[in-house]
């Protein structure tokens, strides 16, 4: 799932998200929030924010609605009439042309997307989390671990899920001292595993 969340590149060349239609194009839409339920009888909605920049909701005019956050297709465009923080990670909002609870009920559990062109601009040393997926992971000694296939967001720090290497699944905490280098242009991530972080290699079958 490509969400509007970012991390910092470390000691690598600057890299901005690929523009849609380019040879290296990534997703054209980023997940912004999920609609939880209607609120009241006038078509208002409660949504759960899934972006690192929730305050932008009060300034957004257009968003897109879809079913599958991992594959945003057949999206419907909606105009945001107003939006305000409700509590914690939840916001209240209203869409144009959604004027009663029945109409709002039809949007329950849908995901809200923002186009990549409208995403929050990143700092020079930042990248979106989706840009980590597929990067080849190696240790500082050059040992292949596999490729980043998923990212677990724990709240404290992200955990990169690496698979396809000799160790099977490896969980790498995204903390200073472990993730030493991220280079999107080169397609690599370099890590220095903490003692005991790598599982034992499976025994080779005897001849």
Structure description:
By secondary structure, the chain is mainly β. The chain folds into two domains: about 90 residues, Elongation Factor Tu (Ef-tu), domain 3; about 60 residues, PRC-barrel domain (SH3 type barrels, Roll). About 0% of the residues lie in helices and about 45% in strands. The protein is built from one helix and 14 strands. Strands 2-3-6-5-4-7 form a six-stranded antiparallel beta barrel. About 5% of the residues have low confidence.
Q: What's the SSE blueprint?
A:
Blueprint: E1 6-8, E2 29-39, E3 44-49, E4 62-66, E5 76-87, E6 90-95, H1 101-105, E7 111-115, E8 126-128, E9 136-139, E10 144-153, E11 158-165, E12 168-173, E13 179-183, E14 188-191
Parallel strand pairs: 9-14
Antiparallel strand pairs: 1-8, 2-3, 2-7, 3-6, 4-5, 4-7, 5-6, 9-10, 10-11, 11-12, 13-14
């Amino acid at each position: 799932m490509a969400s509007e969340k970012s991390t910092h590149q470390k000691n690598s060349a600057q890299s901005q998200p690929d523009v849609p239609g380019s040879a290296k194009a990534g997703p054209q839409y980023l997940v912004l929030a999920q609609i939880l339920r209607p609120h009241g009888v006038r078509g208002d909605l409660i949504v759960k924010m899934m972006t690192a920049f929730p305050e932008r909701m009060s300034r957004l005019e257009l968003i897109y609605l879809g079913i599958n956050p991992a594959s945003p297709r057949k999206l419907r465009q909606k105009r945001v009439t107003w939006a305000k923080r409700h509590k914690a990670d939840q916001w209240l909002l209203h869409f144009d042309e959604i004027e009663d609870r029945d109409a709002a009920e039809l949007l329950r559990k849908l995901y809200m997307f923002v186009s990549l062109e409208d995403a929050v601009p990143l700092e020079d040393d930042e990248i979106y989390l989706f840009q980590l997926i597929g990067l080849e992971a190696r240790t500082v000694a050059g040992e292949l671990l596999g490729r980043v296939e998923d990212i677990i967001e724990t709240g404290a720090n992200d955990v990169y899920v690496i698979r396809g290497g000799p160790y099977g699944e490896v969980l790498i905490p995204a903390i200073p001292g472990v993730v030493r280098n991220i280079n999107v242009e080169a397609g690599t991530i370099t890590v220095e595993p903490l003692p005991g972080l790598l599982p034992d290699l499976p025994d080779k079958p005897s001849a």
